[in-house]
Amino acid sequence: MFLWKENFLFAGEALGEETEAVAALNAYQAKADELKAAVPDDQRVSLVRFLPGKIRPSPTNRSSA
Fold it and tell me: What distance lies between CA 43 and its chain's CA centroid?
């Protein structure tokens, strides 16, 4: 599991919203799976981060999902 997902679940648990956090991650994953199925296997995608005063491309060897 990715760190951001673990942190999301941890925050949900800390706030007493564990069930809602799990449901939100499941909904997110369903949408991600739907998008993945719609994109051709040979399609290339670039991710960029917009920060105050700069634009930073994400490394190519890293998964953001």
Answer: 19
| Residues 12-44: tens digit of each pLDDT | 999 999 999 999 999 999 999 999 899 898 888
Distance CA 20, CA 27 (A): 10
Report the alpha-carbon distance of residue 51 to residue 64 in Å, rounded.
17
Q: Which letter does DSSP use for residue 2 in this model? A: -
For the record, the structure tokens of 4 come out as 């951001």
Nearest to 63 by CA among 42, 40, 32: 32
DSSP 25-49: HHHHHHHHHHHHHHS-TT-----EE
